[in-house]
C-alpha cells in the first residue's frame, strides 16, 4: 500500500466505490467514496422477550472524526436518552460500544440509535439511496422492532 497524489486506476477502484444512482453502473466518471460518515446501530436485544429491564447495546463510529455521543430511543425516535460508552477508547477511527439500561413495558418497541461526532455531525434519520449503498448512515434503516409481554 502506498499514498499517492492521484487515485489508482486499478479496476476495483475505477469500477467500484463510486457514488452512483440506483440502477446506474458505477464508473470512473462518478465521485469516489473517500470518507465515511458518523453512524451507529443497535446490537442487542435482538429478539422479543419479557417486559421489564433490558440493556440496549450497540456500536458507533465517528467516520472521519471521533464519535463523541450516542443516543438511544425505544420509541422509534420520538424521545432519546444518552447512552454511555463502554470499554476502552481505541482512538479517533475506532468503533465504540455503548450500553443503556432501559425499562421496556409490555408492548411494541422500536429501538434506534444515533451518533454524533466530535465535529458536531449528527447521524441523520435517512440517507439518500445510491447504487452501491455506500456511506449509508441513516438511523431509521437499522431500527429493531421488539415485542415484550
Index terms:
mainly beta; 35% strand; 3% helix; 1 helix; 149 residues; 8 strands; four-stranded antiparallel sheet; elongated
Rg over alpha carbons = 18 Å
- Helix fraction? under 10%
Strand order across the largest sheet: 1-2-6-5
Task: Indicate the CATH architecture of the domain at 39-125 and 137-148.
Answer: Sandwich
Separation of the first and last Cα atoms: 53 Å
What general outline do the C-alpha atoms trace? elongated
| Helix and strand run | HEEEEEEEE
Topology, number of strands: 8
The level-1 CATH class of the domain at 39-125 and 137-148 = Mainly Beta
Assembly category: single chain
Q: Give the low-pLDDT segments.
A: none
Residue-averaged pLDDT, rounded? 94
Structural class: mainly beta
Q: What share of residues are in beta strands?
A: 25-35%
Characterize the largest beta sheet: strand count, sense, and whether it forms a barrel. 4 strands, antiparallel
Number of helices: 1
Structure explained in plain terms:
By secondary structure, the protein is mostly beta strands. It has a domain of 99 residues: Immunoglobulin-like. The protein is built from 1 helix and 8 strands; from the N terminus they run αββββββββ. It has a 4-stranded antiparallel sheet, with no helix packed on it. The chain has a 4-stranded antiparallel sheet with strand order 4-3-7-8, with no helix packed on it. The radius of gyration is 18 Å and the shape is elongated.
Amino acid at each position: 500500500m502506498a499514498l499517492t497524489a492521484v487515485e489508482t486506476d486499478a479496476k476495483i477502484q475505477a469500477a467500484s466505490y463510486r457514488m452512483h444512482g440506483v440502477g446506474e453502473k458505477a464508473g470512473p466518471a462518478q465521485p469516489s467514496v473517500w470518507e465515511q460518515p458518523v453512524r451507529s446501530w443497535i446490537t442487542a436485544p435482538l429478539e422479543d422477550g419479557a417486559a421489564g429491564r433490558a440493556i440496549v447495546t450497540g456500536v458507533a463510529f465517528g467516520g472521519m472524526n471521533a464519535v463523541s455521543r450516542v443516543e438511544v430511543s425505544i420509541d422509534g425516535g420520538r424521545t432519546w436518552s444518552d447512552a454511555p460508552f463502554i470499554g476502552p477508547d481505541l482512538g479517533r477511527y475506532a468503533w465504540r460500544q455503548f450500553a443503556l439500561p432501559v425499562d421496556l413495558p409490555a408492548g411494541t418497541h422500536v429501538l434506534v440509535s444515533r451518533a454524533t461526532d466530535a465535529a458536531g455531525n449528527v447521524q441523520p434519520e435517512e440517507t439518500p439511496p445510491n447504487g452501491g449503498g455506500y456511506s449509508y448512515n441513516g438511523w431509521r434503516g437499522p431500527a429493531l422492532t421488539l415485542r415484550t409481554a
